[in-house]
Amino acid sequence: MVNSVKFETVRKILCLVFLFFISTSLVEAQNFLSWRYADRYFSLAIGTGKAAYFGELNKPNRIQTNLANYTLELEARLLTRWSAKIATGMYKINGADFLAPDSSFNRQRNLSFESWNFESSLQGVYYFKDYGGDFFRRWKTDPYISAGIGFTTYNPKAELNGKEYKLRDFRTEGTSYGKVALVIPAAAGLKLRINEFINFNVEVAFRYTFTDYLDDVSTVYPQGTADNLASALSNRKDEIPVINTEAYDQLVAGGPRGNPDNNDHYGFINFKLEIFLPNNKGPLLQKPSAY
Questions:
Q1: Of all helices (H) and strands (E), which one includes residue 15?
Q2: Which run of H or of E encompasses 141?
């Protein structure tokens, strides 16, 4: 009888200990989940900057001096050093042979283009520092690199006698090409913390493309066309004096117009403002103490 009473007492104590352990664990789990839910793993960035084009019509490889790039990005933190982002935007690139050195082949060729393009990409982002565990306790400086895959539109245009023309429509090299190209984006940047909610980001980006027609120049002059306007847009050497006799004689039907061995590329220097988005229905700029 005594032993059974003792056993029953021990059983009740063990049950109470077990229940206490379970209830404590549930509270801790709830607190952990609440912390995870409250933290801001998503951010939105908007930015602008300068563009650079690398192709046949940019002999000096100059960065465009005007603001020629606008971007919008949504980023999600996935792991302590990894995140993913969707980026979309528009940019302007241009090039002109009149900027090439005097008496050069390019200067005598005398071609030019301008193009407003749209791009979109999915990129993985790697941070060199571990995530601090709370968005408002993040690093004051946070360097990163990124790479991914995307696409860009392209629509090179040129002006002739005061009117702008879409060069694709005139098949200036006797061949047609698409409106969209695959790109591989790569970038390196630095995030600077302004306050709990906002970063100022500086980024240098490069876009490797799979087309040589961002500028409408790639191969050779066409063998001939009955369209006088197409011919005038294709070969513009006679719009300037003969400054390079050897080049002038080569700029004929079947002669070199571009370099098909190298595709065109472009890049950016970007400046962005990034804001961290709440995961709940709370205010956008709710103070961290509310968590």
A1: helix 2-38
A2: strand 141-153
